[in-house]
Write a structure and sequence with these properties.
Blueprint: H1 2-41, E1 88-90, E2 106-108, H2 112-126, E3 131-132, E4 143-151, H3 156-166, E5 171-174, H4 183-191, E6 195-198, H5 206-212, H6 215-234, E7 244-245, H7 257-263, E8 266-268, E9 272-273, H8 281-290, E10 297-301, H9 306-323, E11 327-328, H10 332-335
Helix pairs in contact: 3-9, 8-9
Length: 337
């Protein structure tokens, strides 16, 4: 009995000792850890890794003459893609897509010096015959061209009536995925003498694609979009020769030139375009009028609901241009059939 009592008290004593020692050891360990942490925080390594801070870009024109093509993730040569809603938008930048977008209401019209720089750049690239932002005309020659993107759409028939009334020919840049739904309209565009161009298949953003895909994947996708669009158009107009290309959002890279040559394309961007801006039609028309100059290529849209607005803007712009002594050129005059 005594032995059992003695063992009991020994066990109790050991348990109490452990209970007392655990907090003490924890305090000692905590003090050592803090001293160690302080020592490490005062350590200054010879080389530090600096991560770039997140920034918000803005839509703006850049001078590409000092840029060299390095990777697919580089900033576009003419515009940067907006990551937060802008306070202002440079009005000659194309829309990202046809779906409703929150556009800025303030517009900054480019100055003469900016126009001169862009014209100088256009002259350089025109020599390669793959990329145009204005017509190759003599300085002061009052000739312009009208182009229409993102169709065909529900208002394209009425727009064709207007073009016939105005007696002008334009370049229609068609979305391949929309073409099968408007076969008669596409046929009419061609039969009435307008130029049929490709706007690729589904208005894909190659600015976005190149940030996540390899160069090879971008090229493969681009060629696939070209082929699908041509097939859809030629299923309606077998004899058509597609010569003109406008990439969605005005995308262009110099490495595209061999691809353009392979398909027989000339990439046509534009001098000015404003019809996606959410402002009154009268004010948007004034932007077009202010941008009128020799060799200008002007962008309008007939995709989805924009075709109705385009009719009013095209009529007003063409009438104004003619009053100023300008001639609206048939695209075939400069780029062939």
């Amino acid at each position: 009995m005594r032995r059992r009592t003695s063992k009991f008290w020994i066990v109790v004593g050991i348990v109490l000792l452990i209970i007392i020692l655990i907090p003490i050891s924890c305090r000692i360990w905590d003090q050592r850890y803090r001293r160690s942490d302080q020592t490490s925080s005062n350590f200054s390594p010879d080389v530090s890794l600096q991560l770039p801070a997140a920034t918000s870009t803005a839509l703006k024109f850049e001078n590409p003459s000092n840029q060299s093509e390095k990777t697919l993730a580089e900033i576009p040569t003419s515009i940067t893609v907006e990551s937060t809603p802008p306070e202002t938008i440079t009005v000659v930048v194309p829309s990202v897509e046809e779906t409703p977008t929150s556009y800025a209401t303030q517009v900054s019209v480019t100055t003469s010096s900016e126009n001169d720089r862009r014209e100088s750049k256009a002259v350089q690239v025109e020599e390669e015959k793959f990329f145009y932002t204005s017509l190759p005309v003599d300085k002061g020659e009052k000739v312009i061209m009208i182009t229409i993107d993102d169709g065909p759409g529900e208002y394209t028939g009425e727009l064709l009536d207007l073009l016939k009334e105005l007696d002008i020919k334009v370049a229609f840049f068609l979305n391949g995925d929309t073409v099968p739904w408007y076969k008669e309209i596409v046929k009419r565009e061609y039969e009435e003498g307008h130029t049929i161009g490709t706007h690729t298949y589904c208005h894909r953003s190659f600015f976005k694609l190149e940030k996540t895909a390899s160069r090879e994947q971008v090229i493969e996708t681009m060629k696939s979009d070209f082929i699908k669009t041509e097939n859809n158009i030629k299923a309606i107009i077998p004899e058509v020769k597609i010569r003109l290309l406008r990439m969605p959002e005005g995308y262009y890279r110099p490495w595209m030139d061999p691809i353009l040559k392979e398909f027989g394309y000339v990439c046509i961007n534009w001098t000015a375009g404003y019809d996606w801006i959410q402002e009154p039609d009268e004010k948007v028309l004034e932007y077009y009028k202010k941008a009128l100059r020799p060799g200008g290529i002007y962008l309008f849209h007939d995709g989805k609901a924009r075709g109705k607005r385009a009719m009013k803007l095209i009529r007003g712009f063409v009438e104004y241009a003619r009053a100023q002594g300008y001639r609206i050129a048939d695209p075939k005059e400069f780029f062939g059939n």
